[in-house]
Amino acid sequence: MEISKTLEQIMALVKHREVMISDHGYDELAEDAISVNDIISGVANGIVVEDYPDYFKGSCVLVLQKDRQGNPIHAVWGIPKGSSSPAVLVTAYRPDPNRWSNDLMRRKQ
Fold first, then answer.
1. Structure confidence at residue 109 (pLDDT)
2. 59/72 Cα distance (integer angstroms)
3. pTM of this prediction?
4. For site-directed labelling of 90, which of 19, 69, 73, 82 has its Cα 20 to 30 A away?
5. Is residue 8 part of a domain?
């Protein structure tokens, strides 16, 4: 899948350190033992799983990323509606293999 416009914007914002992590995002990072450094550095090699350019709160994208050990992470990044900054980490979690395809790109039915 080609890179989405939303993910391109997110990557540029992260590169310029224009990042915010939501309260929910911090909670989920802690719950799944994901470091902020892993989530920030991992977006550069992220792969789009689902893209929501017209989401009512602002464009957002579900991205498959890896931590520094190479373990998969799903991260939802967004940009607030009516804004061009910052990149907001909405949530991040370690995908449950019982709920996702083997490549972690499709939800199981």
1. 81
2. 23
3. 0.92
4. 69
5. no
